[in-house]
Amino acid sequence: MKASVYIATTVDGFIARPNGELDWLPGSDGVVDPELGDEDFGFSEFMNSIDVLVMGRNTYELVISTGQWAYGKTKVIVLSSTLKEISEIVSNTVCLRSCTPIELYNELKESGAHHLYIDGGKTIQGFLRGNLISEITITKVPVLIGEGIPLFANIPEDIKLTHLKTIAYENGFVQSKYEVN
Ligand SMILES: NC(=O)c1ccc[n+]([C@@H]2O[C@H](COP(=O)([O-])OP(=O)(O)OC[C@H]3O[C@@H](n4cnc5c(N)ncnc54)[C@H](OP(=O)(O)O)[C@@H]3O)[C@@H](O)[C@H]2O)c1
To answer: Is residue 32 part of a domain?
Structure first.
């Protein structure tokens, strides 16, 4: 089984503004840019390759507050030690857990999962610290916002990466894929 990160950041490395807003990320409001046509930067292909999406409570709360659940019937696990229940709207596919990344990873591996999508800054950092991430795809959006929620923090040791490929899209997005060594 492998676990991957697929995420958009600003050029200065943030995944959201300090209050969690994603207004710097084109399309995050659900409005499709006509110049992009059906370009989705590989997201559908990536989603089709995963069995389970693991996200942190902050990411879940942001997504559910938009009223747009982009994950269809994909099984989603929300990690939280404080949330009491999941919204009824998505309760068929989403469940709530509180455990360490390695406990969840081993449990999902035993259940037969092949590919996990790990999402949310703190959640990604926890899985990275546990050496549980195999691939990272970062789409850099050409904007600087100065402050926000960082993608990478609290990493006690260097994590070496191998660059696999980079695609520069016409709209200025630059997407790089790395393997975690
Ligand atoms: N740019 C992008 O592509 C992108 C993608 C995803 C998210 N985002 C944005 O990033 C922001 C959220 O990131 P974030 O760094 O704040 O956090 P996050 O990872 O989404 O959520 C952090 C929370 O997850 C829970 N959690 C994580 N690991 C846990 C564990 N092992 N056991 C129990 N609970 C655990 C904790 O919740 P409790 O406090 O309840 O214990 C923790 O406070 C949102 O604004 C979201 O919109 C952006």
So the answer is: no
Q: Any residues with CB less than 8 A from the CB of 162 and at least 6 apart, and which? A: 178, 179, 181
Number of compact structural domains in the chain:
1
**166 CB within 6 A, ligand 1:** no
Claim: this prediction has a pTM higher than 0.85: yes
Q: What is the CATH number of the domain that holds 137?
A: 3.40.430.10
Q: Is residue 51 part of a domain?
A: no
- Residue 29 pLDDT level (bands cut at 50, 70, 90): confident
Pocket test for ligand 1, best of 76, 99, 123 (most atoms within 8 A of CB): 123
From 25, 14, 31, select the one nearest 171 (Cα to Cα).
25
Q: Looking at the domain assignment, is residue 99 inside a domain?
A: yes
62 lines ligand 1 (CB under 6 A): yes
Average pLDDT value for residue range 123-151: 98
Does residue 58 line the site of ligand 1, with CB under 6 A?
yes
Using the predicted structure, report yes or no on whether residue 151 has a pLDDT greater than 80: yes
pLDDT of residue 36: 73
Beta-bridge partner residues of 133: none
Amino acid code (one letter) for 73: K
Cβ of 26 less than 6 Å from ligand 1 = no
Check pocket membership of 126 for ligand 1, CB cut-off 6 A.
yes
Q: What range does the domain containing 136 cover?
A: 2-19+62-180
